[in-house]
Amino acid sequence: MRTDPFREFDRLAQQVFGSDNRPAAMPMDAYRSGDDFVVHFDLPGVDPETIDLDVERNVLNVHAERRSPAPEGAEMIAAERPTGVFSRQLFLGDTLDADRVDASYDAGVLTLRIPVAEKAKPRKIQVVGGTGRHQLNR
C-alpha cells in the first residue's frame, strides 16, 4: 500500500496548526432523474446559514463552513472532525438550466435539483412533403 507524503504532511500540519491549507472537498453523488439533474453533497454538522451557492458562466460554486463546537479558548482534547471551509465546483453543460437551480438542506445533506434545459429535451419535428405529413421522433 502506497502512502502519499503530501497528504500525510497536510494531515500533520492540520493537527499541529489546527487548520488546513486549502478548502476541503465535499463528497457528492449526482444522477439524472426525469427532467432533473440531482446532486447530493455530504455536509454533516454545517449550519445552513454558512452555505453559499452561486453560478457564473455555467460553473456552479458551492461553499460551506463547519465551525468548531467548542467555545473559544477551550482546550481541545480531541479534534477529529474536520472544521473549516468546504468548496466544490460543478461545470454545468448547456443542456442544464442554470437559472432554475433549486437547493435544500436536510440531515446534513445539501441537495441541488437542476432542470434539464427545454432546448435539450427530446421533441418531435414535423416533416412536410410528398403526399402527406409525417412526424419524426427526435
From TrEMBL:
The keyword DNA repair does not apply. InterPro entries: A-crystallin/Hsp20_dom (IPR002068), HSP20-like_chaperone (IPR008978), Small_HSP (IPR031107). Keywords: Stress response. Residues 19-131 form the SHSP domain. Coiled coil: none annotated. Belongs to the small heat shock protein (HSP20) family. PANTHER family: HEAT-SHOCK PROTEIN 20 FAMILY MEMBER. This is Putative heat shock protein. It comes from Streptomyces scabiei (strain 87.22).
